[in-house]
Amino acid sequence: MSIEVKKNSQISQDSDYILRPENEAKVSQIVKDLYKKNLPIEIIGSNSKNFIGNKLQCAKILDLSKLSGIVEYLPEELYIKVKACTPITEIEETLKENKQQLAFEPIDFGYIVSSKSNKGTAAGYLSCNFSGSRRFKSGSVRDHVNITFKKFIDDNNV
To answer: If 0-12 CB within 10 Å is exposed, 13-18 middle and 19+ buried, where does residue 65 land?
Structure first.
C-alpha cells in the first residue's frame, strides 16, 4: 500500500497514528514537526463532540487527554486556570465547593449520543464555543475566558 493511500485510508493505521503527548512542550514539538511535513492532524480530547460534522481523514491524531487538571484556583478572585482536557464536570465540582458556577451554561451532548452525561473538556468547549439556552443572556464560553498564549509561545520558540 502506497504512503498516499495509507495516509488517507481509514482502515490502515500505523502504530504511531495516535500521538499522546505528556505535556504542552511535546504538543508544540509535534505540531511543529507535522506542520513542516505538511501532514494534516485531528486534535481530540474526550471525543464528546465527535458525532458532529464530517469525519476527517488525517495523517495523525493528536490526543490531548493526558493534559488534564486544575492548575490554579482562586475562589476569592473568581479565577480558575485549567489544562486543555480538564473535564467540565471536574471544573464544576471544584467550583461548587465554594458555591460558584461557570459563567456560561455548558451544554451536555452526551444524552444525545449515549443517553448518559458527557459534557466534554474545557478545550472542547472553547474550540466549538458551544453553550446552552442561556447563551443569549449570559454569553458563550469565549465571552468569559482569557487565554494567554504569549508566554508559552515565547518559552517554546513557536
So the answer is: middle
User: In DSSP terms, which residues pair with 133 in a beta bridge?
Assistant: none
Cell of 87: 473535564
Burial-class residue 84 by CB neighbours within 10 Å (0-12, 13-18, 19+).
buried
Burial of 114 (0-12, 13-18, 19+ CB in 10 A): exposed
* pLDDT tens readout for residues 73-122: 999 998 999 998 999 999 999 999 999 998 888 888 878 888 888 888 98
> Does residue 70 sit in helix, strand or coil?
strand
11 confidence band (pLDDT: 50, 70, 90): very low
Which one-letter amino acid corresponds to residue 75?
Answer: P
CB atoms within 10 A of CB 144: 13
Q: Which long-range contacts (CB under 8 A, 24 or more apart) does 73-82 make?
A: 75/100, 82/122
Grid coordinates given for 128: 466549538
Q: Which residue has the cell 458527557?
A: 118
Q: pLDDT (tens digit, 9 = 90+) per residue, 52-81?
A: 878 888 899 999 999 999 999 999 998 999
Q: What is the mean pLDDT of the chain?
A: 82
Distance CA 4, CA 75 (A): 52
Cell of 92: 464544576
